[in-house]
Amino acid sequence: NTPDKEVYILADGKKTFRVFENIISNILKYSLEKTRVYIDLVERDGKVHISFKNISKYQLNFDPDEITERFTRGDLSRNTEGSGLGLAIAKGLIEAQGGELKVDIIGDLFIVNIDFNI
Hints:
Layout: H1 13-30, E1 37-44, E2 47-55, H2 86-96, E3 100-106, E4 109-117
Antiparallel strand pairs: 1-2, 2-4, 3-4
């Protein structure tokens, strides 16, 4: 979902693309099969808010703030590829551009929220 009009932020295109690519890659790896994924972009209160939501195929048994720390994985028993650096790097790249990245968990719904000033 996107607004009817174009929305602009001041950001590094390559870094922002890398963040979105990482989040979408995680969604493709870790979403429960045959479930929907929601990506929403809204403009409110002088900010652009982007949210990525998916149903996890793994139990979300961790603190949402910990998943954005380096070397922390969402499911410690998981044996799939990855170092746990993805969301930590994504958060760092967003913050370096003056934005904010936050992870929320509601049951088995995994949400990544990104905010940028307009």
